[in-house]
Task: structure prediction
Amino acid sequence: MAAFTNQQLHYRSDLFGRLRIPGPKSRNGPTRVRMSLQENAPSLAVVGVTGAVGQEFLSVLADRDFPYRSIKMLASKRSAGQRISFEDRNYEVEELTADSFDGIDIALFSAGGSISKQFGPIAVDRGTIVVDNSSAFRMVDGVPLVIPEVNPEAMDGIKVGNGKGALIANPNCSTIICLMAATPLHRHSKVIRMVVSTYQAASGAGAAAMRELELQTHEVLEGKQPTCDIFQRQYAFNLFSHNSSVLPNGYNEEEMKLVKETRKIWNDSNVRVTATCIRVPVMRAHAESVNLQFEKPLDEDKARDILKNAPGLVVIDDRASNNFPTPLEVSKKDDVAVGRIRRDVSQEGNHGLDIFVCGDQIRKGAALNAIQIAEMLL
Amino acid sequence: MAAFTNQQLHYRSDLFGRLRIPGPKSRNGPTRVRMSLQENAPSLAVVGVTGAVGQEFLSVLADRDFPYRSIKMLASKRSAGQRISFEDRNYEVEELTADSFDGIDIALFSAGGSISKQFGPIAVDRGTIVVDNSSAFRMVDGVPLVIPEVNPEAMDGIKVGNGKGALIANPNCSTIICLMAATPLHRHSKVIRMVVSTYQAASGAGAAAMRELELQTHEVLEGKQPTCDIFQRQYAFNLFSHNSSVLPNGYNEEEMKLVKETRKIWNDSNVRVTATCIRVPVMRAHAESVNLQFEKPLDEDKARDILKNAPGLVVIDDRASNNFPTPLEVSKKDDVAVGRIRRDVSQEGNHGLDIFVCGDQIRKGAALNAIQIAEMLL
Result:
């Protein structure tokens, strides 16, 4: 049980919105030399550095020894002047302006769609390669929408060092987590239909939503009326349809992202996807129940083998001890977990599978995926 | 927001396992005369009266003015001797024995499958009609499995007063809540396949699980290691695959109940159902994401009309204000709520619909449904 408590403490430090101070990591023992600050490496900018994903960008950059010669911390005017300590150096958060991108090779954006729409093209004009975590450009023709384990070829030809700016979009968190597990199966036996129900964490709505979930939980336990500033409803001990706008077809935007982004990432306009997206009172990792229909048979043992050998994926599928993926277990982890792998009894033969997937929304669902994209630019 | 706080307070009184003391209700004003204690009415027994569902049996009996001439409060030896005040009278909890059913017309059982298997047949031999909330007899040929709004005809001929005992099974909570919404549609345009993902409350695992969820939540908020007596894992701010045993086909028992009970209740051995059952940190109401495939087209406007006119169902489907069913809203309510009614974009024409259903697990998922069955016996 100790592991749970550690993870609990981890997310609490995020939950309260404290700036994390990633220092040199010691994965290989205390004598490991940190390699990330290098003169010939690219110059970086992090846009939205004070947000939940922005903070995770820094954490992942440090964890992965991402090489850089400089890093600029950018945020709104309101956050400008805040101090951030990162890899033994102190930085001041600067206000994002049109001039912020002069001399920047790679900019990691996570400051919302309107900021991306305004400043993304400016950065590209200055020769910066923008990896954008917002939905602003995901469905724009010509903008690669990339999960590095799934469709790295979509960004072929985009490299740091030729002075050319470019936009690359990070898919939505629920799409990334779903396709990390569905794609290896799809590559083996084409998926023709997918029915997804999500169990989405507070973090997808930002650090303020995580704080509100904790505040509300305190209040409800004390018998007080819960504070409902973010979602206008009780979130503690409750769940609700995803808070994104509902479109004329009755799907909300989050659901249609799963439908449309899957088609673009798989480069398959015929794949049929439906989704129901639900917000549950979990802090920072999403879960998804995914029902798959295959063009050709795929039995569950073969599927399990495929998933066990897939990059970025861990199989947790212990039926005897009822041990399957949970959001808490994958919190702060890079890997997406998949389990409950079984033949769908409602489909003929081996044409269907049910699986259950969990992934950290802030990490693989956002920051890690973006930085994996950036690594491919080097 | 006041309504949420009231509901919150309601479930807290259950949460702590206190015996509720339903008094005369005043739905029609303070002068209403309580009609339930009547000389010519049946004699009742409640088996498992100190449990979460047992307590709800009493609450629903009182709410619905269920007529009775006597009521026997039965539980295990451990609980015998406890005092219960019900409708202005005091009762002592008696130990359940083979002799408990002498002279009892109707017994409401909710004490687990093994108690039902042991004492159900004994009660029937004594001429008692048993309405059993356990899974013990649900799939036994000849035992009606009944949702009164769905298949009342299954219990035709079973009546109080002819001295004949009988067994009637209450379906599983997740089956009841799903079929309350799916059946009216199925009656209009046959459902040929259903893909269900559940979001199940603590209450399904009993009052102790509800207490543990609350205790764990306190502990986690205080940074303490959570107490994991019931589920052997952290439940607070987490979710996990349903705790029932996993069968050789990879489905857990809860999921196969949805598959098999649907076929029996609909009297349709061909309906194809798959389910993924997940426990979420919610107290007493289940939610279910249900994807339906129809034999013949059924458009969403027609579906909404059908659901609006269905008994025991309330439609909450306000796209403009993003207002859809939530478990908290249906907690302590009789009606099952349905919303997110929309044409499934992954199916051709109008052959598919997605819906989202919420229902109180203890009430319509267990106690209310059983007492509605008992009402049909009168």
Remarks:
- The CA atoms of residues 59 and 342 of chain B lie 36 Å apart.
- The domain at 17-136 of chain B is CATH 3.40.50.720 (Rossmann fold).
- Chain B is about 30% helix and 20% strand.
